[in-house]
Specification:
Elements: H1 2-5, H2 10-23, H3 27-30, H4 34-62, E1 66-71, E2 74-77, E3 83-85, E4 90-91, E5 97-100, E6 105-109, E7 115-118, E8 123-131, E9 137-151, E10 161-165, E11 170-173, E12 177-182, E13 188-194, E14 197-201, E15 204-208, E16 212-216, E17 226-227, E18 233-240, E19 243-248, E20 254-258, E21 263-266, E22 272-274, E23 277-281, E24 286-294, E25 298-309, E26 312-324, E27 328-337, E28 343-345, E29 352-354
Parallel strand pairs: 9-10
Antiparallel strand pairs: 1-4, 1-6, 2-3, 2-5, 5-8, 6-7, 7-9, 8-9, 9-12, 10-11, 11-14, 12-13, 13-16, 14-15, 16-17, 18-23, 18-25, 19-20, 19-24, 20-21, 22-23, 24-27, 25-26, 27-28, 27-29
Helix pairs in contact: 2-4
């Protein structure tokens, strides 16, 4: 799956591979073949190069959009066809529809590292996913039912766009994290975690910013942006260099930094991440996996986790380790809730060296690299978090 997601760099290498044996066929080598054999060989070379172009370009263009099934089941409907069972890592294209089953979660990763996470019983359609010759990015989606979480990379070109349509609204963003919930009647509720989103319905537009929400009923304009309800519980993970980390929740969704790059990944709805830490609002009960990667040559590091219920701290735990260049390590943290609904955490499990990171994250070659923030994260209740660049 990783090779498919890096298709933009596959074509030049493949064509270079094809050119090399052709360049070594000199005139003296061709003379014994005779005029007709020379012509036949020329035709064969042209055919080989033509086939090579087709083989190289098909993965390059198709691998830009990858469907990852985190748990449960998902289905894909190709253009003009009905829904069939999807496979993890399947390539999806413009015109395809994707839907998740009950109690199932999936993520679609685009060529620039932007993602849209699909909650259970959600249906979306890919209307556009392309890059122009000038480098402008265009992603357009239609969500007809269910709940999604979009983490959009910052769009640097004026003619780039990320657009999410629903039966009652159109949301246009240039780099943000936001949640979209579409009911059976088409009513849409959009909540922004960070950044800003322009929401249009019935010819009227409102701008929704950090920690705000709006609702667009059928045949009505968007409501005025209002403060979104704060999370009852929050769990924060802090990393003290020289390392960075990614956190996977009990459903297999990942938030944090992953190599190469590293790049920032935000599959958990509402999460914030940087190279210094991860913040997860309204966490689910269960086991969280913390995967640690070295920065540079690595060294000794400290990882901490803290919980807060209604802005009051409930726990704070710390673990220390040392990581070498090329290693991957992991530990775990169990999260549960007390009788009052407040979050409760336990100590970190043992830190272990593992062979492969247990995260399901396609890494496209066009994803931007995250940069460290100077200074050391503060202690409890957690580090300072920055939004996706």
């Amino acid at each position: 799956m990783a090779n498919r997601s890096q298709g933009w760099t596959f074509a030049p290498a493949y064509l270079q591979f094809i050119r090399q044996p052709v360049a070594k066929v000199g005139e003296e080598q061709l003379k014994p073949l005779g005029r007709y054999r020379y012509a036949a060989l020329a035709i064969a070379v042209i055919l080989v190069i033509g086939v090579g172009l087709l083989v190289a370009q098909r993965p390059a263009s198709a691998s830009s959009t990858v469907l990852t099934i985190l748990n449960g089941q998902a289905e894909v409907a190709r253009v003009g066809a009905g829904f069939v069972a999807a496979t993890d890592g399947e390539i999806v294209a413009v015109g395809d529809r994707v839907r998740t089953a009950e109690s199932s979660h999936a993520v679609i990763t685009f060529f620039d590292g932007s993602t849209i996470e699909l909650e259970p019983a959600t249906t979306i359609q890919i209307d556009d996913a392309s890059v122009t010759g000038s480098g402008a990015r265009s992603i357009s989606l239609l969500q007809t039912l269910g709940r999604t979480w979009s983490s959009v990379q910052k769009l640097t070109k004026a003619d780039s766009k990320y657009e999410l349509k629903t039966p009652t609204s159109t949301a246009v963003v240039r780099g943000t994290g936001f949640e979209t919930n579409v009911g059976a009647d088409g009513e849409t509720t959009l909540t922004v975690t960070d950044g800003s989103v322009s929401v249009t319905g019935q010819g009227q537009t409102v701008t929704v910013t950090d920690n705000q929400t709006t609702t667009v009923p059928p045949n009505a304009p968007p409501s005025a942006p209002a403060p979104a309800p704060p999370p009852q519980n929050t769990v924060r993970f802090g990393m003290h260099s020289p390392a960075f980390m990614a956190v996977s929740d009990p459903l297999g969704r990942t938030c944090g930094a992953v190599p190469p790059g590293p790049i920032i990944v935000r599959q958990i709805p509402g999460c914030l991440a940087s190279l210094q830490g991860v913040s997860v609002p309204n966490p689910r009960q269960g086991s969280y996996t913390v995967v640690v990667f070295p920065q540079g040559d690595g060294g000794a590091y400290t990882v901490d986790a803290s919980g807060a219920a209604n802005n009051a701290g409930t726990f704070n735990v710390t673990a220390s380790g040392a990581i070498q260049k090329g290693e991957v390590q992991s530990t775990g943290l169990s999260v549960s809730f007390g009788p009052d609904g407040g979050i409760v955490g336990t100590a970190f499990g043992p830190i272990q060296v593992i062979q492969k990171a247990p995260v399901k994250v396609p890494v496209p070659s066009g994803a931007p690299t995250a940069t460290p923030v100077a200074g050391t994260p503060p202690p409890t209740p957690g580090p300072t978090f920055i939004s996706t660049p």
